[in-house]
Design goal:
The chain is an alpha+beta fold. Helices cover about 55% and strands about 10% of the residues. The chain has eleven helices and four strands; from the N terminus they run E-H-E-H-E-E-H-H-H-H-H-H-H-H-H. The longest helix has 22 residues. It is globular, with a radius of gyration of 17 Å.
């Protein structure tokens, strides 16, 4: 049965899952959810499967999975459970633990700071002092990624994993105009964060990989 991904094109959390599915070659159907309306006004179909009322939700293998990094963890271990080579996960225990360290870091850093630096400008009306706080943290996050990627090709070793997928979630949106005011514009990466820029290009060069903008294009938001 084809997997179903409830998602939204402005959600980096949704993009993480879409990117992992694309990299793993998993066939899925996108159902884009209107997150601009109150949760109780979203479709009954979506509300029935969304335990927290949020995107993404992935229906796969008879499971109803919520929260992006939980979904990534399942997708990485699913390939191993199917009897094939482990993909998007560490090859051994220590590497797998490093992968999940990055997942935890990303959830409290990139998916908090970049997400709010973007949202507060494009969709909200955040106080300037609050935006400045998120901007500082966002730049520190990119500094941390740069430091790691100056040492290793991928965040958790010598091959791409769900750690890389997770950290891409909101980085694809730094090509948008808001990022210049936040001091994280992708156009500046080659000079300020060159290892991060090279890693970003490597991720999007992987077979099946698409940017967030490409992954969600051409579909109607109707759930």
């Amino acid at each position: 049965m084809t997997a179903i991904l409830y998602c939204h094109p402005d959600s980096g959390f949704s993009y993480k899952v879409a990117l992992a599915l694309d990299l793993l070659g998993v066939e899925y159907e996108q159902r884009q959810v209107n997150i601009r309306i109150a949760r109780e006004q979203r479709s009954a179909e979506f509300r029935a499967v969304a335990a927290h009322g949020e995107v993404p939700v992935l229906l796969i293998d008879g499971l109803n999975l919520c929260q992006s990094n939980v979904i990534l963890d399942y997708l990485a271990t699913r390939q191993d459970a199917a009897g094939g080579p482990r993909r998007l996960d560490g090859a051994e225990l220590v590497q797998r633990l490093h992968v999940r360290e990055w997942l935890s870091w990303e959830a409290n850093r990139v998916s908090l700071n970049l997400a709010h630096a973007r949202y507060g400008r494009q969709f909200g009306a955040y106080d300037p002092a609050l935006l400045a706080w998120y901007d500082r943290r966002s730049r520190a996050d990119l500094d941390r990624l740069q430091a790691q990627l100056a040492q290793t090709l991928w965040l958790a070793g010598d091959a791409p994993t769900i750690a890389d997928v997770a950290c891409m979630g909101y980085l694809c949106f730094t090509v948008e105009p808001w990022a210049e005011a936040a001091g994280v514009a992708h156009a500046d990466w080659a000079q300020r964060w060159p290892a991060l820029k090279a890693w970003y290009d490597r991720v999007l060069a992987l077979p099946g990989a698409r940017s967030a903008q490409a992954a969600f294009a051409g579909r109607e938001i109707r759930y």
